């Protein structure tokens, strides 16, 4: 899947527009992704991602980077052998689109 555009609160993926946080898997998109503590990403917020076991996970922390990522998330990803990037969402989009892997996943906070 290719992210065609991103702006505050809006993302277009393969011709479909989204206006809520989302997780992009190779074969599906989980829209309206919400975290237990909103702007604080925890391991339990990534259950489906961890079950999928991607090669790479790109985390977009929002337009201004307001979503914090718990250290436990990083440790869990490292323990699972998942390469990860954590960036403001605009930069995360660029990284996601450049990664050449059939098992990449993107988790994007679209606002803040």
The sequence of SSEs as H and E is EEEEEEHEEHEHE
Q: Helix tally?
A: 3
- Taken together, the total number of domains comes to 1
Strand content: 25-35%
CATH homologous superfamily?
MTH938-like
**CATH architecture name:** 3-Layer(aba) Sandwich
Write down the CATH class.
Alpha Beta
State the shape. Answer: globular
* Ends distance: 24 Å
For this structure, the CATH topology is Hypothetical Protein Mth938, Chain: A
Low-confidence stretches: none
Gyration radius from CA atoms, angstroms: 12 Å
User: What spatial order of strands do you see in the largest sheet?
Assistant: 5-4-10-7-9
Describe the SSE topology.
Elements: E1 3-7, E2 10-13, E3 16-18, E4 22-24, E5 29-31, E6 40-41, H1 47-52, E7 56-61, E8 68-69, H2 71-79, E9 83-87, H3 89-98, E10 104-109
Parallel strand pairs: 6-8, 7-9, 7-10
Antiparallel strand pairs: 1-2, 2-3, 4-5, 4-10
Describe it for me?
There is one protein chain. This protein has three helices and ten strands. The strands form three sheets. The chain has a five-stranded mixed β-sheet with strand order 5-4-10-7-9, with helices on both faces. Strand 1 (3-7) and strand 2 form a beta hairpin. The chain is an alpha/beta fold. The radius of gyration is 12 Å and the shape is globular. The model has no long low-confidence stretch (mean pLDDT 97).
């Amino acid at each position: 899947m290719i992210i065609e555009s991103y702006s505050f609160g809006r993302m277009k993926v393969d011709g479909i527009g989204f206006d809520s946080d989302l997780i992009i898997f190779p074969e599906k998109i989980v829209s309206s992704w919400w975290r237990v503590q909103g702007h604080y990403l925890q391991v339990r917020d990534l259950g489906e991602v961890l079950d999928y076991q991607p090669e790479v996970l790109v985390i977009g922390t929002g337009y201004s980077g307001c979503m914090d990522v718990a250290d436990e998330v990083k440790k869990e990803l490292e323990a699972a052998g998942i390469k990860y990037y954590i960036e403001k969402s605009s930069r995360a989009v660029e990284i996601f689109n450049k990664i050449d892997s059939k098992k990449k996943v993107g988790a994007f906070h679209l606002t803040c």
